[in-house]
Amino acid sequence: MSIDIKFDGPYAILTLNRPEARNALQFTMIEALSYTLDQVAASSARALIVTGAGPKAFCAGADIKELMDRSLMQQRQGAQLGQRTFDKLAKLAIPSVAVLHGYAFGGGLELAMACTFRIATVQARMGLPEIKLGLIPGYGGTQRLPRLVGEGRALEMVMSGRTVDAIEAERVGLVNRVVAHGEPAELGKAFMSEFIGYSRCASQFAREAVVRGMATTLEAGLEIEADLSTLAYQTDDAVEGMHAFIEKRTPEFKDA
Fold first, then answer.
1. Which of 14, 16, 149, 234 would staple 23 via disulfide (CB 3.0–4.6 Å)?
2. CATH classification code of 3-192
3. Where are the domains of the chain?
4. pTM beyond 0.85, yes or no
5. H/E stretch holding 112
6. Would you name the residues annotated as active-site residues?
């Protein structure tokens, strides 16, 4: 299998499993990823961890040999498949983290940017090198990167194709945290443990407020926040959380 999925308590652990090719993405892998994300969405998992098999790479990008000798329509359909699948990841109801070790290039970095969070070991290297092949990113890189690091830095990376290390990636906001080298799934679980103990309802509302607000004006974003915060007050978890605070005890959230 090129895409492996394992459920471990509150975690779903998704592994790109093609280490002999540094986990380069084939179209069949992207299709399998889409199906696997549906499995995750239907599960009781509270967080998704995305990793790559082997010590060399999270994902080295698209399989270049597979991209050659395709018609105009085939190329567009391939881009739309990648965008549609990565957008499914971005819109999961539960938070996700990409654990970057080794290389995360091209489609691999685009996959990571579709996750809610990214963490990287100090050995990680990442970039969008498509320009070096006479191409541009096609799986969302030109859109998600500027939203993470700003227009100027995104243009620099996309138009030069240069590689950034983990330290620079953290500094510019491409990754959330640089972590010590370790087993990727365990690194992901340690990071996501900070997010899984709260009400799933509140977590979804918080994330939706930020994501929707970033796509509009401040005025419209404040309206979105007002609507979603009002909805949050109507949940059983909000009642439990406030009572627990007054009673000086740990709340027992039921995701309702």
1. 16
2. 3.90.226.10
3. 3-192, 200-246
4. yes
5. helix 107-114
6. 110, 130
Give the Cα separation of 139 and 126 in Å (integer): 15
Residue 253 CA from chain centroid, whole number: 25
| Cα 205 from Cα 188, distance rounded (Å) | 23
DSSP state of 14: E
Quote the CA–CA distance of 99 and 49 in Å, as a whole number: 7
Share of the chain above pLDDT 70, in %: 100
Contact 202, 235 (CB under 8 A): yes
pLDDT digits (tens, 9 = 90+) for 104-151: 999 999 999 999 999 999 999 999 999 999 999 999 999 999 999 999
- Cα-trace Rg, the chain: 19
DSSP letter for each residue of 167-222: HHHHHHTSSSEEE-S--HHHHHHHHHTTTTTS-HHHHHHHHHHHHHHHTS-HHHHH
